[in-house]
UniProtKB/TrEMBL annotation:
This is 3'(2'),5-bisphosphonucleoside 3'(2')-phosphohydrolase. Mg(2+) binds at E62, D80, L82, D83, D193. Keywords: Hydrolase, Magnesium, Metal-binding. GO terms for molecular function: 3'(2'),5'-bisphosphate nucleotidase activity; metal ion binding. GO terms for biological process: 3'-phosphoadenosine 5'-phosphosulfate metabolic process; sulfate assimilation. SUPFAM superfamilies: Carbohydrate phosphatase. It comes from Janibacter cremeus. Transmembrane segments: none annotated. Pfam families: Inositol_P. It catalyses: adenosine 3',5'-bisphosphate + H2O = AMP + phosphate. Gene3D superfamilies: 3.40.190.80, Fructose-1,6-Bisphosphatase, subunit A, domain 1 (3.30.540.10). The keyword Hydrolase applies. Its cofactor is Mg(2+).
Length: 249
C-alpha cells in the first residue's frame, strides 16, 4: 500500500494537474465562476481518491460539509483543494496551491503542498533543511491583496522587508525555498489553510507555531485556526519576540 507521505504528494500533484487543465478549458470566463469551478473540481477529485485509497479515514475539506464524525476518528485528512483562488483565476499567475495533510492521533503526520503552475510538490517525505541563508534584513512573506496591519507593524519593528505573494501554502513554502525567512499570519485562517504547509515545513525542520509560540492543534470541533508562524529556526525567537512587542503596543 502507498505510504501516507507518498499518497499526499500524489494527490496534491494530481489535483493540481486537474486544476491546470480546468483553467485552460475555461480560459476567458468570469473569474468568480472559474474560482468556483476550480474549488469544486479539485474537491470532488480529492474526496473520490481518498475514499478509494483510505476508505476508513475521515476528511475535513474547505469545500465539503463538516462531518463531526472526524472528531472521534483516529485519522483525518485535512485538505484545501484550491488555496489561492484569486491567483488561480488570474491568467498567468502561479502563486496558488493544493493542500493535502493527514492528522493522526493528535498530530500532523504527513502532508504535501502542490504548486501545479510551477510543476513542484513539496512533501513531508523529505527532511532537507530550508534552502538559502537568513536574509539581512529579514524577509516576511505577506499577502499581496490583503496585507494585514499586524504584519506591517511587525516588519517595521524588525526592520524587515515584506515580500508579497498569494496562497498561504505558497507563502509558507517560500520559507522552505529560501525566498523569505518567515511567514506570519494573524488575520484569520482555518485548519485547511495551514495543515499541509505546517506538516511539510515541520518535516523540513522549520519552526511552526501560533503567534504566541504555542503548538498548532488540529482536528478541533471548530476548525478556525486564526494565526500562524512558519520561519527558519534560527530566527524563531527574534520573530516571536517581535510579535510580543507589537502586541504590547
Amino acid at each position: 500500500m502507498t505510504d501516507d507521505h507518498t499518497l499526499a504528494a500524489e494527490l496534491a500533484t494530481a489535483a493540481g494537474d486537474l486544476l491546470l487543465r480546468t483553467r485552460d478549458q475555461h480560459a476567458g470566463i468570469d473569474p468568480k465562476e472559474l474560482k468556483d469551478i476550480g474549488d469544486q473540481v479539485a474537491h470532488d477529485f480529492l474526496m473520490a481518491e481518498l475514499a478509494k485509497a483510505r476508505p476508513q479515514d475521515a476528511v475535513l475539506s474547505e469545500e465539503g460539509a463538516d462531518d463531526h464524525a472526524r472528531l472521534t476518528a483516529a485519522r483525518v485528512w485535512i485538505v484545501d483543494p484550491l488555496d489561492g483562488t484569486r491567483e488561480f483565476s488570474e491568467a498567468g499567475r502561479d502563486d496558488w496551491a493544493v493542500h493535502v495533510a493527514l492528522w493522526q492521533d493528535g498530530q500532523l503526520v504527513a502532508g504535501a503542498v502542490g504548486r501545479p503552475a510551477k510543476d513542484v510538490t513539496y512533501s513531508s517525505a523529505d527532511n532537507a533543511p530550508a534552502a538559502g541563508t537568513t536574509g539581512a534584513p529579514l524577509r516576511l512573506a505577506v499577502s499581496r491583496s490583503r496585507p494585514p496591519e499586524f504584519v506591517t507593524l511587525l516588519a517595521d519593528h524588525l526592520g524587515a522587508e515584506l515580500v508579497e505573494m498569494g496562497s498561504a501554502g505558497v507563502k509558507a513554502m517560500s520559507v522552505l525555498e529560501g525566498q523569505t525567512d518567515a511567514y506570519v499570519h494573524a488575520g484569520g485562517q482555518y485548519e485547511w489553510d495551514s495543515a499541509a504547509p505546517v506538516a511539510v515545513a515541520s518535516a523540513h525542520g522549520l519552526h511552526t507555531s501560533r503567534i504566541d509560540g504555542s503548538r498548532l492543534v488540529y482536528n478541533n470541533e471548530n476548525p478556525y485556526l486564526p494565526d500562524l508562524v512558519v520561519c527558519r529556526p534560527e530566527v524563531a525567537e527574534t520573530v516571536l519576540e517581535g510579535i510580543r512587542a507589537v502586541n504590547r503596543g
